[in-house]
Design goal:
Mean pLDDT of chain B: 95
Radius of gyration of chain A: 16 Å
Number of strands of chain B: 13
Oligomer: heterodimer
Largest interface: A-B, 47 and 52 residues
Low-confidence stretches of chain B: none
Distance between the termini of chain B: 60 Å
Mean pLDDT of chain A: 95
CATH class of chain A: Alpha Beta
CATH topology of the domain at 20-228 in chain B: Rossmann fold
Number of helices of chain B: 8
């Protein structure tokens, strides 16, 4: 049997997913995406089974090209945002149900990693506690996140800074320092 | 928009056997499984060239994670050389060109049936466990819709009752493998039919564990540094198999999980279940320089 060689698309999406998986497994530890930007996440995750929301026309086109349905924020299973959303949005995001918590949304948004407000993360994937610095996400966002989610329901967040990515699953408790 | 932009270049077969849409679906479900540790996430479970129930769940996860630089190790009940392990390993290498190994320390991805290696896994390693029955509530609630509701309600009273009945009837917990365990204080999961010996290895482990049931079409995950607590009563402590005193007749290894080999004349001999650890022990006894990693158990006692 001849061994198949991975295409460039396969190599890139595989490496992107590897970064996503480890980012979510170890909240707060930044991983490196093979290609900077949110489009690589769309390539690795999104197809016609998904309903997405994006406020970025370019990303919306890429997702539509991949076959995703473009829907409003409250119906989307993946949201690709160009800035931190207003905290009031969090209460309308899909959070799944107690029976199907996996229906909760995945929120992808940019921020600056390594500067700014200090956050203390605890929960699964964190060895004790880890402190990170994120700039561009207001205090109110984290407060709203804590207030609207009732584990195991909730949404999961990926923060992207160029080719750096940090995952914040719903299981992570965040304290603003 | 051109026709070319709507299609992909022709390939004789998809890399890693699964096509891109199957991989995307598994990726999305795996992310949610990691976000909600221990919760069973339904997934499509595509056809693979192997019968359901022979490790198709683990195989699909491995196929999704593989790239040509991933070093793969496959074990079946601790052994690298059993038929199931050898054929899965050959298949994975064949569809991906990934290097294979039997050494736990050199592996990036370990697909396993019913054992966790004795050497401590690192924080860059992924353990994929094959799961025949992902539903810990099935013995007490065969209706899977009701069982799902019970998970949603964290209604695990019947699990405790089952353990209590075992203690009353038999004087001890009779659950030998797939011991129900509470993950992150919320979901009771089955750790797959690993022996009781292996369950404490999952608690606050450094590696990522993904458990996938191909026939039942569900997967769940235990992220690194996550609490995994076997269900026990305060006054009846959790006990692992009493293998600490057994010595492997082939390698001389002592204090690890053993396979019992009954002899014709009555008694049994023992052989270390983690076959690669046995091989390494033999090489070391022969004076060769082999690296045996730190083990979870030392002299039959769990460390940490």
């Amino acid at each position: 049997m001849q061994t198949p060689a991975p295409s460039d698309f396969e190599t890139q999406t595989n490496a992107t997913y590897d970064a996503l998986m480890w980012a979510l497994s170890r909240p707060g530890m930044a991983r490196k995406l093979p290609v900077a930007g949110q489009a690589s996440l769309i390539a690795a995750l999104i197809d016609r089974e998904c309903a997405i929301f994006s406020d970025d026309v370019h990303l919306m086109q890429i997702a539509a090209q991949a076959g995703a349905q473009i829907v409003a924020q409250n119906d989307a299973d993946h949201l690709f945002l160009s800035a931190t959303p207003d905290p009031s949005i969090l209460s309308v995001l899909r959070q799944g149900t107690d029976i199907y918590p996996e229906d909760g949304a995945t929120l992808v948004m940019p921020a600056v990693i390594g500067h700014g407000m200090a956050l203390r993360l605890t929960g699964p994937g964190v060895d004790g506690a880890v402190s990170i610095k994120i700039d561009g996400i207001p205090d109110a966002f984290w407060t709203a996140r804590r207030d609207v989610m009732r584990y195991p329901m909730g949404f999961d967040i990926f923060i992207i800074d160029q080719d750096q990515i940090i995952g914040i699953p719903r299981s992570t408790a965040i304290e603003v320092l | 928009m051109s026709l070319k932009s709507l299609t992909k270049a022709w390939e004789p077969m998809s890399y890693g056997f699964l096509d891109a849409s199957a991989k995307r679906e598994i990726r999305r479900k795996m992310l949610k499984a990691i976000a909600v540790p221990g919760c069973q996430i339904p997934y499509a479970s595509r056809e693979v060239p192997m019968a359901r129930g022979w490790g198709t769940g683990g195989l699909q996860i491995s196929c999704t994670l593989l790239n040509p630089k991933t070093t793969i190790k496959v074990i079946d009940q601790g052994a690298d050389d059993s038929v199931n392990a050898a054929s899965i390993r050959r298949f994975l290498a064949g569809v991906s060109g990934a290097p294979t190994t039997t050494d736990t320390l050199k592996a990036d991805l370990i697909q396993s049936r019913h054992r966790i290696p004795e050497e401590i896994l690192r924080e860059d390693q992924v353990l994929v466990l094959q799961v025949p029955n992902p539903e810990p509530l099935r013995p007490v609630q065969p209706n899977m819709s009701i069982a799902r509701q019970m998970h949603a309600d964290a209604d695990y009273g019947r699990m405790w009752l089952q353990l209590y009945e075992q203690i009353v009837r038999s004087g001890r917990v009779m659950q030998g493998a797939s011991y129900p365990s509470l993950v992150n204080g919320r979901f009771v999961m089955t750790p797959s039919p690993i022996p009781r010996w292996d369950v404490p290895k999952m608690h606050m482990a450094k590696h990522l564990t993904i458990l996938s049931a191909g026939r039942e079409k569900r997967l769940h995950a235990v992220p690194p540094f996550t609490k995994v607590e076997p269900l026990v009563f305060d006054d009846v402590p959790y006990k692992v198999e009493d293998h600490g005193a057994h010595v492997c007749t082939r390698s001389g290894a002592k204090g690890y999980f053993m396979n019992e080999i009954p002899q014709d004349d009555g008694p049994s001999t023992f052989e270390v279940s983690d076959s690669e650890l046995g091989v390494k022990s033999i090489h070391r006894a022969d004076g060769e320089a082999v690296q045996i990693g730190e083990t979870w158990y030392k002299n039959g006692e769990m460390t940490e």
